[in-house]
Amino acid sequence: MRKLLFALPALVLLASCGGSSNTAATTTEQTAAEQTGQTFMIDTLTTTVDWKGAHKGGLAPRWGKIGVNLGTISVQNDSISGGEFMVNMASLSVDPASVTEEGKKATDLEGHLKSADFFDVAKAPTAKFVITKVEPYTATAEASLIADPNYLISGNLTLKDKTLNVTFPAKVQVTSDVVTASAKFVIDRSAWGINYKTEGSAENWMISKDVEIGLNLNAKKN
């Protein structure tokens, strides 16, 4: 399995702050990048997928993490050539520090996010990201939410039963034994058909359609 699956499961959870100019470019599903070079295995203990969402206008922000099951990254000529990475949606968690209102519990929100209103974990226990293109980041590329990005990564993101291609800046470092990558970007969850509380006109939305995704990836030489 030599593709890099960026599991961004926490994606279509709630939402980030409504309507961000940093929303990742999204297109239809693309052909996966050919896997060449050496294989690095994702370290599931140190790799994290973070999510952040909010209600309309950025109110009541919520955030948490999702665990990574497995994945690989391919490297050729000191650069990522492709790969894939899987995430266990059942491991989705809500940070209790983000739920401060009286009478509300992080565990209740976790259950709701795993329900059919959002990720429907019973039917779709995993999410995945398959790299389709890796190119150098330039000053004319998309705006970045992280400092000093050096790559622009595109990949097929599958959430529930829908796959779309997303593109975002990333900071990648490759050594002879380790690959590290970090990225932060925003997606519109409704593009994947996750429409809970976002139907109709914008003034009726209770939860923003935007979700901020953070990726901190570590992989070791196989």
Automatic annotation (TrEMBL):
InterPro entries found in the cross-reference section: Lipid/polyisoprenoid-bd_YceI, TTHA0802/YceI-like_sf
A UniProt-annotated Pfam family: YceI
Domain of life: Bacteria
Alphabetic keyword roster: Signal
Domain Lipid/polyisoprenoid-binding YceI-like: 39-220
Signal sequence annotation: 1-25
Annotated protein name in UniProt: YceI family protein
